[in-house]
Amino acid sequence: MTRRRWIADEVSGSRAALTGAHAEHLSRVLRARVGQEFDIVATGEVRRGRVSSIGENRVEFELGDAVSAPALLPITLALSIFKFDRMEWAIEKCTELGAARIIPVIARRTEPRLAAASTKRVERWQRIAREAAEQSRRSSTPEISQPIKLKEAVAIPGSTRIVLAEVE
């Protein structure tokens, strides 16, 4: 059976912890018990973790051996900002597909109110990416940067670029 994977909020030596809503979900919704084993991503490495204590807003793990995890290709995706519920869905799916970095882009046709509100949404997008990374058993969360203009996004170094647009 496949073990559920969690990305640790805190890591110290051979111990890791989930805190806040993350820990509450594991303890209350999934009803974790002391002694249960999970895969824990700690400082970029996937390790076996056994629950050592459960508190109201904190679940602690004793870390064990490393677990093999496939390496991801360093894919950077520049995604034009659009209606937020669909943007969140796109971030979730791009995370599941293995994007290493997602850059929200303010394009010429981006609605001004969405462009203005996008800087406030970055933290939410990062949380969505983290949850999608755990669900898809990734060993890292993609970086979600602050929104940038299209000209800046095109200047990002890289070997291959694919631009999807309505006109050439």
Give an overview in words:
32% of the residues lie in helices and 30% in strands. It is an alpha/beta fold and 168 residues long. The chain has two domains: 5-66, Ribosomal Protein L25, Chain P; 76-154, SPOUT methyltransferase, trefoil knot domain (Alpha/beta knot), CATH 3.40.1280. The termini are far apart.
Summarize the structure.
With 168 residues, the chain is an alpha/beta fold. It folds into 2 domains: 5-66, Beta Barrel (Ribosomal Protein L25, Chain P), CATH 2.40.240.20; 76-154, Alpha/beta knot.
Attribute tags:
six-stranded mixed β-sheet; single chain; alpha/beta; 10 strands; 2 domains; elongated; 168 residues; Alpha/beta knot; four-stranded parallel β-sheet; 4 helices; Ribosomal Protein L25, Chain P
Helix and strand topology:
Elements: E1 5-7, E2 10-12, E3 15-19, H1 20-29, E4 37-42, E5 45-54, E6 58-66, E7 76-80, H2 84-97, E8 101-106, H3 112-135, E9 143-144, E10 148-149, H4 150-154
